[in-house]
Write a structure and sequence with these properties.
It is a single chain. This protein has 425 residues and is of the alpha+beta class. It has 14 helices and twelve strands. It has helices at 2-11, 13-48, 61-70, 81-88, 115-121, 191-197, 221-226, 261-270, 281-324, 326-334, 339-380, 392-406, 408-413, 419-424, and strands at residues 53-57, 93-105, 108-113, 125-128, 136-139, 150-151, 154-155, 163-164, 170-176, 187-190, 253-258, 276-279. Strands 1, 2, 3, 4, 5, 6, 7, 8, 9, 10, 11 and 12 form a twelve-stranded mixed beta sheet that branches. Helix 1 (2-11) crosses helix 11 (339-380).
């Protein structure tokens, strides 16, 4: 029987191929949506797990997390430097690292921070050594710059018409090990170098109370010029000073590593005031996942609707095809072929097409998800793991069950007329 089915499929290979491709494309859409949503959820969760608590000025929790964890540029209000000083000296805090954004080089964000944060992200460097002076930098694992190279910071980005700073050129001293986060694409420099480069010496920036940072989180240099605050000279050979007091300039965010889980909850509550905001990145992502889940449900509904239309069209075409083979089926019945064999013949032919389309669709969907994840990882440096899990067997089983049931319809329609009527057709 299998030989007969395969011979019949070879005879009508072009139509069979069209059916397989249609089924494959409809299945691939569902598989891609499922795998990609899971990859984004797992990848972002793994990237955020390195950051226990974020503290910043009162504003959007989501934007604070996206900017500090995933280095997405956005206008952030600045938290008073006294808040950073309190966190740095809090006995419940193991690490309080300020982050300052605003500059870029070669398409990579330049982030001002401390050696403590770098050591937290990458306990050991893959190359070179930690920066020890204001004019030095450590690059992420995905930054294509070698140690010893010099980096001239540009305010903003080249695409946005950014201006290159001339007060300093950072010398790369080391490279972090891969972290699987957006920080793999960053160039990390001493936070005080960022402050000095943008005219934020000591408490000077507090004259701009109420101003938001620019699109990347630091004071707008054009505003500083118009108000008479020229950027000061930076001594690139000056040693690091990572002591923060009440006169520290404002910061868009502080990455905090509490000593215990209880300390983390207490600190978050204490800094959820009218002027400051404390958030767990994982909680922010949970809310984003809920939104993402709604979008996934919508896309899956569209995919299932598409599959229903494709299946209906395939069934109609198959019924027409069976109708055109009435004489052949009638001859088989007249020769004494069991009804069960004829049903299995027609059912098997269509089910093989469905099975081939489902298998091809799963492969297409997997490759599409891999391609999308690779492109997202290239732009964000966040590793997005694409893979199947045990629960996906239910999805495959559902496809197979629907295919088996649908294939019965043309098989039953082949027996509607008697052998004599079929032979006269």
């Amino acid at each position: 029987m299998i030989t007969f089915i395969l011979a019949d499929l070879r005879r009508f290979w072009s139509g069979a191929l069209a059916v397989v491709v249609l089924i494959a494309l409809s299945v691939a859409l569902s598989v891609t949506v499922t795998l990609q949503e899971r990859a984004v959820r797992l990848g972002s969760a793994r990237a955020a797990e390195k950051f226990d608590l974020l503290v910043g000025a009162a504003g959007s929790e989501t934007q604070l997390a996206l900017s500090a964890v995933f280095l997405q540029p956005a206008p952030l209000p600045l938290m008073d430097g006294a808040g950073l000083s309190r966190l740095a000296n809090d006995p419940r805090v193991q690490l309080a690292a300020p982050v300052g954004f605003g500059d870029s080089a070669y398409g990579h964000p330049i982030v001002g921070t401390t050696t403590g944060l770098i050591s937290s992200l990458s306990p050991t460097l893959s190359q070179g050594a930690m920066f020890t002076h204001l004019g030095e930098a450590v690059v992420g694992s995905d930054v294509a710059l070698s140690t010893g190279a010099e980096v001239k910071p540009m305010h903003g980005t080249a695409e946005a018409g950014g201006e290159t700073h001339t007060a300093i050129a950072y010398k790369i001293t080391g490279r972090m090990a891969p972290t699987g986060t957006a920080w793999d694409r960053a160039i990390l420099v001493p936070i005080r170098a960022v402050w000095q480069l943008h005219g934020m010496h000591g408490g000077e920036y507090h004259d701009h109370d109420g101003d938001e940072a620019d699109a990347h989180g630091v004071a707008n240099p054009e505003q500083d010029r118009h108000e008479g605050h020229e950027h000061g000279h930076i001594d690139a050979d000056a040693p690091l000073d990572e002591h923060f007091d009440a006169e520290t300039p404002g910061v868009p965010a502080v990455l905090v590593k509490p000593k215990t889980i209880a300390d983390a909850y207490r600190l978050r509550q204490e800094y959820r005031t009218g002027t400051t905001l404390g958030v767990f990145p994982a909680e922010v992502l949970t809310r984003l996942y809920a939104t993402l889940g709604d979008a996934r449900s919508l896309l899956l509904a569209i995919a299932l609707g598409t599959q229903a239309i494709v299946i209906a069209a395939i069934v109609l075409v198959t019924i027409m095809h069976v109708g055109s083979r009435r004489r052949q089926i009638g001859a088989l019945r007249a020769l004494g072929t069991p009804v069960r064999s004829i049903v299995m013949l027609v059912w098997g032919e269509l089910f093989i097409l469905f099975a081939a389309g489902i298998a091809l669709g799963i492969a297409f969907g997997y490759l599409a998800a891999l391609t999308i994840s690779a492109r997202l990882a290239a732009s964000t440096a966040v590793h997005l793991p694409v893979g199947f899990v045990f629960d996906d067997l239910w999805l495959v089983g559902g496809f197979a069950a629907v295919a088996a049931i649908i294939s019965v319809i043309p098989a039953v329609s082949a027996l509607r007329s008697s052998p004599a009527t079929a032979l006269r057709a």
